[in-house]
Amino acid sequence: MDYIETKHVAAELRNRLKAQFPGVKFSVRKGTGTASAWISVHWTDGPSTADVDELTRPMQGAQFDGQEDRYEPTGNTITVTVNGRKVTGKPLVDGINTHQDISDDALKAAAALWSKAHDGAEPPTNEMLDACVINGHVIQENWAAPQQMWQIAHDVVLPQRWAAAKEQAAQTARPTTTHEKGEEAPEGLTLTHTTEDGTTVTGTRLGDGAADVLKRHGFKWHRKHQYWYAPGSRNKDADTEFVTAVAADLATADLKVTTVLPEPTPAT
């Protein structure tokens, strides 16, 4: 039985993460400076740690047994591509550490949910925050406001955004229906990015709740053209992470949104 070097396992893991969680940027690094072979995986927002662990667990060749104070083989085998050739073997990986970071935007959304649950009050910075319920999730009491905002983001904001992002991806993957001339197009918002106009949102209506979401993401209203736009996004490539977060929050607010992005430029 062949053994797969850690660097090849890391390369295969990077490819699998990209395929399993499109649109999410992962940092996959091989550990250095220790006798054990480790891989660390970091990402911001997106899927939960449990989701990522489900993918990484079969790629570990060993795991640490705390009672025996030693590494025990898992018996896992993986298939990777090395120099253009498919190779199957046991991964030389003693563990894969996964860590999800939470963006400032998600923490801001968490603070907005906290304020909504407390009649518009701002989270205090120097007193104990009582336990509360946010969208059906019990948020533990905590002296530090940032820690409670972190829990709201982790337990409420990010799961909602990720679920909405997956649904949006599924809708995008479905074949689109061509409407006959004169037939009314389906209602909803359109989140678009073009080089000329940047990132814009059309189809909003007064009181539909879109304005609050878009303002939270920095969008401004263009009076002349009657649409929302993201300042500084013109003459640039689409920021897919930003667009995904906006679409997810709009969907969480019970708004139907269709995302239209330009086709990526083929690599030379």
Describe this structure in a few short sentences.
The protein has 268 residues and is an alpha+beta fold.
Q: Give the structural class.
A: alpha+beta
Assembly form of the protein: single chain
CATH hierarchy class name of the largest domain:
Alpha Beta
Distance between the termini: 38 Å
Mean pLDDT: 86
Q: Briefly note the CATH topology name of the largest domain.
A: Alpha-Beta Plaits
Helix content: 25-40%
Gyration radius, to the nearest Å?
A: 22 Å
Shape: flat
Strand composition percent: 25-35%
How many domains make up the 3D coordinates? Answer: 3
Runs in which pLDDT lies below 50 for 5 or more consecutive residues are 175-186
Give a short account of the largest sheet: 5 strands, mixed
* CATH architecture classification name of the largest domain: 2-Layer Sandwich
- Walk across the major sheet and give the strand order: 13-14-12-11-15
Order of helices and strands: EHEEHEEEEEHEEHEEHEEHE
Describe the structure.
With 268 residues, this protein is α+β, with helices and mostly antiparallel strands. The chain folds into 3 domains: 2-101, Alpha-Beta Plaits; 104-159, no CATH class; 189-260. The protein is 32% helix and 26% strand. It is built from 6 helices and 15 strands. It has helices at 6-20, 49-56, 104-117, 145-173, 210-216, 240-252, and strands at residues 2-4, 26-30, 38-44, 62-65, 70-73, 78-82, 85-91, 95-101, 132-134, 137-139, 189-194, 198-202, 220-222, 227-229, 257-260. The protein has a 5-stranded mixed sheet with strand order 13-14-12-11-15. The protein has a 3-stranded mixed sheet with strand order 1-7-6. A 3-stranded mixed sheet has the order 2-3-8, covered by helices on one side. It is flat and about 65 Å long. 26% of the residues are buried.
